[in-house]
Amino acid sequence: MRVLTYSKNIFIPVTDLCRNRCGYCSFRRDLGRARIIKRSQAQSLMERGAKAGCTEALFSMGESPWEVPGFSKMARDFGISDLMEYLVELCEAALEMGLLPHTNAGVLRQDHLELLAPYNASMGLMLETTAGVLAHAGSPGKAPEVRIDFMARAGKMKIPFTTGLLIGIGEGWPYRLHSLKALADLHRTYGHLQEVIIQPFDPKPGTPMAGRPGVGDAETAEVIRLARSILPVEVAIQSPPNLADPETMARVGANDLGGISSITPDGINPDRPWPDIAQLKDQLKGYSLRERLPIYPRYVLVGWYSRRVAGLIEALADEDGYKRTDGAVSWKRSG
Q: Which residues, at least 6 apart from 18, have a Cβ–Cβ distance to it below 8 Å?
């Protein structure tokens, strides 16, 4: 039976303030409506996630919110002086709870990347597309060269990395091919891409692209088929099961379902509820579903992680690098 992997996670929105203004995004908020998550709220989510058997704390935030005029006052009023230091504090709290951090905070400066990397089992950034699309006209962080440079810097640091394409935002087939080739080249150079997500555009009410048609399963499947023909075989292809039919996508080459949560909604697509694991197992009877950590098994086995997360990874992983299922997790943070 073919194996489909997944992780159990919780979604923690650190802040929804963002310098980018993408035409499809419903996560971003303007100053005045934007929020920074309280320690107590994050702690509560982590406690619930740990009790539910989650292993991943997915930290997400708007990109470079400090570039938005008024952010400094917002942060001072909240009681923090440095958002990245606060994010490190949250990552440490997750580790104390037995959750492995995976941070997707947009394009980061090198000093911020170096600060966060030791506290994360893996990190991520969607490429989305190498095309210059109207949807990104107000989004300096979505320039393809900026995002590829960030992923290359992560590769040089040997950070297990998640990226992906957002299809249906005006890029067209030639740029889908170009984007996949760019990711394949990145992985052949640095070896750090653990998975590539193929995410279909899903229009959100109240956004500039609300009236644009979404991408259906047939088109998504064709992109996955193309991706499997281009990406190195060890790079997983993820198809989120709340956005596309998982059986259809598995048949054409998808082999990962991504992070699935019983605690938090999909923070980027909140109107698309997660199926539960039992439902997926019933739907995917021709496949073996296997739980993984936010760091993929091959990176567990070669030790691509820092000493700050080593103890927890080694406690949670089985001999093959997947999430252990024998219930024998014994771990105490050693500092």
A: 25, 27, 28, 61, 62, 63, 64, 65, 68, 106
